[in-house]
Amino acid sequence: MVGTRLRVCGKEVQHRVFGLRLQRSGFCDKFHFLKFPVGCCENGGIVLHSGRLKTAAFQTAFADNAPMIYRQNFIKELTYTAVGIFVVILAVLVSTQAVNLLGRAADGRVAADAVAALIGFWTLGMTPLLLVLTAYISVLTVLTRFWRDSEMAVWLSCGLSLKQWLRPVLAFALPFAALVAAMQLAVLPWAELRSREFAELLKQKQELSLVEAGEFRTLGKRNGRVYFVETFDTESGVMKNLFLREQDDKGRENVVFAKEGRFALTDHKRTLELTQGYRYGGIPGEADYNRVGFEHLSLVISTTPKIVNPVDHRRTIPTARLIGSDNPQYRAELMWRVSLPLAAVILAILAVPLSYFNPRTGHTYNILFAIGFFLVYQNGLTLLRNAIENGKIGFWAGFLPLHILMLAAASSSCASAPCPRSPSAKPSKPH
């Protein structure tokens, strides 16, 4: 609408501008529809000429409505982009983990009916880091497109500074940070505890699922135990005509024959319960073998403590117990849980200056810098967590410096980023 004279008489009306030709940019860009009130002038009309708004009412309407328009549409586009990025990354990671677990299930290392639960626990543990990455990539992707399509140049030329984009970015990133904080501080410790209990239960049931009639199988990892079962009832778990051979640390061999046997879980011990059989013990090559008959014999396969209040597993400890602890491992875990929500906000802010793209050159060096900043941030947090865990540095010395450094880098980048100057918009009398 360049050089067009609009005459409006009577009361205040609504009008739409589909595009503005800016004097400095020299092109007509696709703007979202701008709705603003247009009032009558002295001679009943307003004029748009060379991109300069000729009425004070027009300029005031644009200044009042443009911030709301760009924020609403920017956050809307960020939301759609974030949903797509999250779904794609999650699908790739879950499919990769599913293939890995299915391969282990095919080899007998994981029960087939446990694959879905293990994938669920693994996905839940990866979600916080995935949310941080999603917020970062979404802001970077949308703003890079704005620079590439020159939409950012238009908005900046209209008087919006680069710092004004931080408000909608924060409005978008803060819900991500809140969700990450809720998962890190409350959900994940509970999920990790359930995951470890489930893994232990699978381990205890592994021998039951691997019993095959007519085949020699190893039993546990100690004493070289090998057993053979003639028949096995899968419903009752009863093995009949069982043969077992084991060797102790002194080289003495024991051979057991039993009429029946079954695996049992008692007091968190995996045992093999045998009934009506004989036990032969002796040293190979010698004739002094002993024979002992029994009605019932219980062989302990392994002893595994129950994970109820897992002091040894820091990832399962509630956050309230980590606060104020003198244990370096607990401090390291607390530092990691609190760092990810902050990282979600800081990376989103950092994506604003890193998104700068010059469409004239076509170089995408900003993407390389963005990847580099993320790797430095993530690996730096990991190194600091390990340093706290090993007692080399204190909690605050490992928690604050990297966050402050990255936030300072984001602030300085926003201040020094290229910003087109807005054209003069002095009102003049209509003609």
TrEMBL record:
Superkingdom is Bacteria
| Entry keyword set | Cell inner membrane, Cell membrane, Membrane, Transmembrane, Transmembrane helix, Transport
Cellular location of this protein? Answer: Cell inner membrane
Recorded GO CC terms: ATP-binding cassette (ABC) transporter complex
- UniProt keyword annotation of Cell inner membrane present: yes
Where, by residue number, does the polypeptide cross the bilayer? 78-102, 114-137, 169-191, 338-357, 363-381, 393-411
Q: Which GO terms describe its biological process?
A: lipopolysaccharide transport; transmembrane transport
The topology of this chain with respect to the membrane is: Multi-pass membrane protein
Q: Note the InterPro entries from the entry.
A: LptF, LptG/LptF_permease
What's this protein's name?
Lipopolysaccharide export system permease protein LptF
Q: Taxonomic classification, please? A: Bacteria, Pseudomonadati, Pseudomonadota, Betaproteobacteria, Neisseriales
